[in-house]
Give the backbone structure.
Amino acid sequence: MKRKWVRIVLRTLLIAVGLPVLFVAALLAWGYVSDNTNGSMVSSGITRRYLLYVPKSYDKSKPTPLVISIHPAATWGAFQRNLSRWNDLAEQYGFIVVYPNGSGAFFGGFSRGAHVWPGGPHTLARDVKYISDLIDKLEAEYNIDPQRIYANGMSNGGGMAFALSCELPDRIAAVGVVAGALTTPWNCRLSRPIATVAFHGTADKLAPYHGAPARGFAPSPFSDILEWTAHVAQRNQCPAEASESRVTASVRRLAYTNCAAKADVILYTIEGGGHTWPGGKRLPEWIVGRTSDEINAGQVMWEFFVQHPRETK
């Protein structure tokens, strides 16, 4: 009965205020988003919290990779953990994963100098500083391999991961972007090539595959994903021509290779996929669209990360 009541309320919101607000309301109402952290620190004068997972196989005598996974807007690290299932991979492959909480449940990661969310101003610079400080903290507490620090995220978190490739290229080895909420212009203050892998559904209504005009919750236009991928390939000094292949019946792979510093750029297009994490925990399909199980974004991302450590000068 309770679930039926939630559906009625959310369908009413869909008619009244549209998909973006509905998406946030749905996440909250469905009970996926319960804040759960086990670490905190002060960065830029603000207490920031995070959720850390250290695999049972961790050996302090061995340098260990670190994966930073960033949540969508209006959620928390625990949501990202449940959605992406990175903990399972961390246990299987022996890396540490951390899920940082945004300030007020948001990250300013649209790769711009500043971005204003409904909850108030959240500057990119402050969040970049937080991630950098978090890396420092974890390096002091664990034997982190500095050549194998990776960032990824979904939606707004995917935008933040891309921003980190622009702002912290000397610390981040490679990034992954799932259903990225990416807006133009793409401002890369530092243009060092960073290996990038992305996943995006053609039926994503929140961050449309072919872009969308500016709207209330995003003051800049959403990027066309193919144009954004080509832009990243240009930044990474890849050859202009990309190769395309079919991975499964509904998953295509676009690859820019032979790039500077071996910084390949790969895009997986999920035909009919929604604003979801492929191979991850399913969100309500009637709200965010289909979650594909034909490809596991986390597994593919980790394999990509393993192949792309940060090159030393």
Observations:
- Residues 5 and 11 are 10 Å apart (CA to CA).
- The domain at 37-306 is CATH 3.40.50.1820 (Rossmann fold).
- Residues 124-141 form the longest helix (18 residues).
